[in-house]
Amino acid sequence: MSVAVTMAPAAPTAEEEAQLARLYADFERHHLMPLWTQTNDLMPLTPKPKAVPHVWAWKDLYPLAQRSGELVPVGRGGERRAIGLANPGLGGHAYVSPTLWAAIQYLGPRETAPEHRHSQNAFRFVVEGEGVWTVVNGDPVRMSRGDFLLTPGWNFHGHHNVTDHPMAWIDGLDIPFAQQMDVGFFEFGSERVTDAATPAFSRGERLWCHPGLRPLSGLRDTVSSPIGAYRWEVTDRALTEQLLLEEEGQPATVAPGHAAVRYVNPTTGGDVMPTIRAEFHRLRPGTVTQTRREVGSSVFQVFEGRGVVTLDGGETSLETGDLFVVPSWCAWSLAAEGSFDLFRFSDAPIMERLSFARTQVEGGDR
Amino acid sequence: MSVAVTMAPAAPTAEEEAQLARLYADFERHHLMPLWTQTNDLMPLTPKPKAVPHVWAWKDLYPLAQRSGELVPVGRGGERRAIGLANPGLGGHAYVSPTLWAAIQYLGPRETAPEHRHSQNAFRFVVEGEGVWTVVNGDPVRMSRGDFLLTPGWNFHGHHNVTDHPMAWIDGLDIPFAQQMDVGFFEFGSERVTDAATPAFSRGERLWCHPGLRPLSGLRDTVSSPIGAYRWEVTDRALTEQLLLEEEGQPATVAPGHAAVRYVNPTTGGDVMPTIRAEFHRLRPGTVTQTRREVGSSVFQVFEGRGVVTLDGGETSLETGDLFVVPSWCAWSLAAEGSFDLFRFSDAPIMERLSFARTQVEGGDR
Amino acid sequence: MSVAVTMAPAAPTAEEEAQLARLYADFERHHLMPLWTQTNDLMPLTPKPKAVPHVWAWKDLYPLAQRSGELVPVGRGGERRAIGLANPGLGGHAYVSPTLWAAIQYLGPRETAPEHRHSQNAFRFVVEGEGVWTVVNGDPVRMSRGDFLLTPGWNFHGHHNVTDHPMAWIDGLDIPFAQQMDVGFFEFGSERVTDAATPAFSRGERLWCHPGLRPLSGLRDTVSSPIGAYRWEVTDRALTEQLLLEEEGQPATVAPGHAAVRYVNPTTGGDVMPTIRAEFHRLRPGTVTQTRREVGSSVFQVFEGRGVVTLDGGETSLETGDLFVVPSWCAWSLAAEGSFDLFRFSDAPIMERLSFARTQVEGGDR
Amino acid sequence: MSVAVTMAPAAPTAEEEAQLARLYADFERHHLMPLWTQTNDLMPLTPKPKAVPHVWAWKDLYPLAQRSGELVPVGRGGERRAIGLANPGLGGHAYVSPTLWAAIQYLGPRETAPEHRHSQNAFRFVVEGEGVWTVVNGDPVRMSRGDFLLTPGWNFHGHHNVTDHPMAWIDGLDIPFAQQMDVGFFEFGSERVTDAATPAFSRGERLWCHPGLRPLSGLRDTVSSPIGAYRWEVTDRALTEQLLLEEEGQPATVAPGHAAVRYVNPTTGGDVMPTIRAEFHRLRPGTVTQTRREVGSSVFQVFEGRGVVTLDGGETSLETGDLFVVPSWCAWSLAAEGSFDLFRFSDAPIMERLSFARTQVEGGDR
């Protein structure tokens, strides 16, 4: 139901109608718009997103990226060979949700995506493959399967493929938010990556990836995480331990059969970037999550395993690489067939920092 | 200059062109969109708002509100007789900027705007008149000239005019932000105000408006200010003292000849609401402010006096009641002819909490 | 009961006793001390303060201060004519508790207490009289009955009496904490006050004492409050309003018949200084507070009215000016005969910031 | 120089002296003490600790602990076979500084130190040995060489030695602070450890020791770190990487040749406990640190290597296991002969949270 329904002055006379028409014309001339004639849902009872729930199959996405690799060069100007997931409800924009951008990026053998920087916060998640190093503010970061990689706002970054095979991965950014809110700055950098070394671990990892330890050279808190790469081995081990602890009868999982971690900024314990939350979820075979609605939008990618997602009542089977978007206040739940691993990112930090966050869980609000 | 210019594969053959066409058709079919063909400014070098700077004259606005008062009833459904300032660059929406809503609201003699509540944060600012009480969560709040009045998100509120003369004021909300981000909830309340008393001071003021004192019954910090009304007498006194202190050679003003206060939440010292900042500025006659660009948008209303605003180089003369919007990264400055009092509100808390805030001041960044 | 009782090796032989004696002698020689022979309460079951509850009568204190005024000069070296309340349990120190210093300070006609600054945080509370200005970092602050006045750590301050009659007030500081923790620095300043003006309101008040307003020239949060004087008129009005609201059936008081405010730093909403909390309490005639134990120590001074304090079961009648100390975990309650106004200060910020705070209220913990 | 020197009324007459004597007697009778006769340094120009810098040699300490193991049983009552380092300046107390307790604790083969809990925050650091598990709130934590182990305030903990050889380690607590401030509570627990398992890794580690990852079951920030054991392997690797990065010309060390990490609470990035900071420092051979004074006290233990400490100008050679205390504002520096590894703990969180922290570094304040 809509709040801003047209107000009905009871049976207006012809003279009244003429006066109203003149009034509305004068409004328009003066760049005004009355609240009471707005037929769209300006203030709905619950969020009514234009964005719709949608699933993209990896088996469709990846071949299209390959064909792009053959037909479209990468270089200065277009900057990136990235193909954005365009939410069917947000016609005409490559926005997966009103806040988030999700794309598959594809880099052919020996190719380089030139360096630049922008206000928009970005990350990469690698569902398969290896061979590319992303260079973030001069620090070369290996990209391998299962890794979650950060390029927070205003950090220079470029990618280069040092192998003879192509590589694809997922990019996530806050481009739609930045564009609609008019907050974006952009600067071109080097056409080649500024450090062509290919170390196994980036300098950020070597300085920061020691659990519970903080370098005395890094005591000032940072807006975004100083860790450039969250490695799959670490994520996998954390999830494995949670499930083992659960088997031992210890509190560790977020719900029975459901292990989950959030990627965090070690200087604060909070989200990795000011606008984007990222998590990894693992469900035991047979686990079904509670149905949940949240303010704000999320994107999931299946990393491994098979299962089913239910989005506002509609079920879709999922397999490795498949992506889906959950718009604001859309009811969602997951069911695992085998073991089921999913990467998730969302705009939750925006909602929490601005106090708009709400969650409704089957059987009660949280 | 745009970053995402079309990439030009040098002299494609007819076969290549056909392949590209097939690729793009396949993209569309699968709800994908390549980054490299987006001709719009997806990632501009600096913010390129669709919103434009614009001035609305009070002498146009107020008569239109009066005519609405005669022709359009107020009541359940349309809820409010509010006329939104529609930024000419945001065609089709009553958005003064991508985040903010500004409207003139008009309540005839003895009329009531029924109670409701919504996630959207709202305030009122009274440029002239009196006679209406706004009832916020059951607390009746007098509305008088120069007062700044809060109805933070999810507080029930309704207004009623207890006099025989009409009253108009300015509403400010984060409706555009809430609508685009899909965060809004709405709930209808009582058709009449739940407390028809007309006290000079609201209970919130009586509990909270004692400088430097906090009630022991209110030690928990609140997301939004517990003060329902910031009275003109207090604002005026604060600005007067700043200018007197300046005359005595003491640091007090924000710049020479420029007194200014921010309305704050006394439980935190921070902004009154999570998405909206509100301030009051007073310029001595002849004062000219530095030219400034800021990320995020602002709306000003002249409260008293005369002056000139320069917006991206274009000058407009202003008098009491005139409103203007400053879109993101628009260069602005003010020049006072006589003493010049202005109310300002903006989305700065959004920009600061999400780390997108930037300011460029003539002669150097801040 | 004590934890660290001597451990008793069952029936030691003479040889064993000799060995133990040699061991203990070796401990001493090497500056070591075994935990198991410590007969004092190193780790008691609940706090066992050396400080004891105690009441000082104003009718004793004030004449002694007067006699000091006749016999002892004030000036550089001794710096202040202050007489400290010495807790009978803390023999040999002018400590009212392990953290707090409380003293009566007396300034004769036309006398000056020279300027200096120190790390220790200080305040004054005026139970009667007027005529002295305290000059804090060059800002002259009038001292009048009922005022609470701040001189936070490392601010220069001196006092001068501009009248022909003497004046006395209460000083509160964190001297015992600073001395035991070895945190204190001290610096001499001007022998005369640096600004001899006697304005009704200090510059800090003129800039900061406008409820809900923050100067744009003061947007950086400060460790201690920028308000130099919390005036009695304001405190009285806040308490009066709480009791009126209570009569109207509104939530406002901290408990039935018990109005109370905390003095706060307007830049944060938190305590006025990092180590000292200050509050003002007003009880309606006949009100009896719940019995309460708290970690940390407090000092109260009766500002007006009559009542009874119960400290660990012992009752004492109180009248205007009387002071009493509540050591850590001492059970206390107040009973008002007529209307009963009390100023309170405590070390609660220390306890809260270091997570040692605990409160036990008759009928349940809080 | 002392501030509170006795004030000298110039040439008092006999009558005046008699009056003064009566005044002072009356002060004493009423539990008052004048500021102006206090000859001790109540407010010194810089901190003047009673605690003195002091070094304890491991070659003295360890044999004394062994002899205690033979002569003194451990069990309920004395609770722990711990021998406290008694600062020579704090006569009569086993306080290494006014805030900190440091002790060597010794547990014989198959012995158990029974479970208890207290408000005091505690940790263990293991300079050599293994074979003991400390059980913290039911979670068994292995203790091995180089490990830093937490038992934050009000967590039950007991230790048991599962081997046939004894083990010793260092305990650090805030006992002196807790005792002087009267904040301590204590509760006896099980006489035997509540979980006799001897896992290689505790449950806290398995849940929390994954760099940059936070369990979704642990999103609420905790006052103290949820990590029970910070393992030597991790600390060593972090320090090694810092020195390697330095060799590669990258910013990583806190000063040339000086690697250092702080142990932190992963939920906040801040100190592990509210009152105690812990760090590990590694100096390259030949490195000499800047001379530094700090408000607050520190204790160091040499973990490995040889070097020299200079404390207020006095030099002492150090080897593995040696401990020294740096009182507040004592000038200290370290010089490494070979590679030089030191564990450090301090009361810095107290000083920072209460805004008393100051540091003076050779060549300028910080």
The number of distinct helices of chain A, counting runs of at least 4 residues, comes to 6
Helix and strand content put the structural class of chain A at alpha+beta
The gyration radius over C-alpha positions of chain A equals 23 Å
Profile the largest sheet of chain A: 7 strands, antiparallel
Assembly level: homotetramer
> Which spans of chain A have pLDDT < 50 for at least 5 consecutive residues?
1-9
Greatest interface by residues involved = A-B, 95 and 94 residues
Tell me the strand percentage band of chain A. Answer: 25-35%
Order of helices and strands of chain A: HEEHEEEEEEEEEHEHEEHEEEEEEEHEE
Distance between the termini of chain A: 24 Å
Question: How many β-strand runs of chain A?
Answer: 23
Question: What would you call the shape of chain A?
Answer: globular
Which percent bin holds the helix content of chain A? 10-25%
Mean pLDDT across all amino acids of chain A: 94
